[in-house]
Specification:
With about 200 residues, this protein is α/β, with parallel strands linked by helices. It has an eight-stranded mixed beta sheet. The N and C termini lie far apart (about 40 Å).
Length: about 200
């Protein structure tokens, strides 16, 4: 990176540090302690729902700030009353989208690569007559739980009802439709356990 590029990057990061946290609070997001934001996530908070972000979390919504770049800034969207997105302490996220009609929880120290998608619902009813329904996807939502110190590779998709156990690794581009145990390396479409992490 050139000197001018480094100066620009430094100025943008300092500018984001001044305004993004306050902007998110104004939108109704609960912030615990201090976080690191590069760029502002897109937030859509449904009435009577919640989004919370833990201390030391790093949320990147600008392409220059991550090696692979990102397709778009982080999306944090709750879709129904009582729905929750909970991002615990020291979580790292680059781009990606998180849409909760029930609950999405990401454990402490987890890292989510560029453009990961996590959703706890199908967005449309599976029965043809319900495809355009505004409530079928909410009725069928099932929570997603990502454990502590999990690493999810770029452009993976985590679907409804999935739990990923502590310390596990999900390979890039995986589609995770079934739960993954703790201390496992899993990958593919559909995602399957390849081996366990020793120790």
């Amino acid at each position: 990176m050139t000197i001018l590029g480094r100066i620009r990057t430094s100025l943008v990061c300092r500018f984001d540090a001044l305004w993004v946290a306050n902007f998110l609070k104004w939108q109704g997001v609960t912030l615990h302690g201090a976080q690191n934001f590069i760029g502002a996530p897109l937030v859509d908070l449904h009435p009577q729902s919640s989004i919370s972000i833990g201390i030391g979390a790093m949320l990147i919504s600008r392409s220059f700030a991550t090696a692979l770049g990102i397709s778009h800034r982080i999306v944090l969207r709750t879709m129904a009353p009582g729905s929750t997105i909970q991002i615990h302490d020291r979580v790292g996220i680059s781009g990606g989208a998180f849409c909760a009609a029930s609950r999405i929880e990401i454990g402490c120290g987890s890292l989510l690569g560029a453009d990961v998608i996590v959703c706890d619902n199908d967005f449309h009813g599976l029965i043809p007559e319900e495809r355009r329904s505004t409530s079928a996807h909410i009725r069928d939502a099932r929570p997603v739980f990502i454990g502590t110190n999990v690493f999810i590779g770029t452009r993976s998709t985590i679907l409804k009802g999935v739990t990923i156990g502590d310390n596990s690794v999900i390979g890039a581009g995986s589609v995770v439709s079934k739960s993954v145990p703790a201390n496992a390396i899993a990958a593919g479409n559909p995602c399957k356990v390849i081996r366990l992490i020793p120790g």
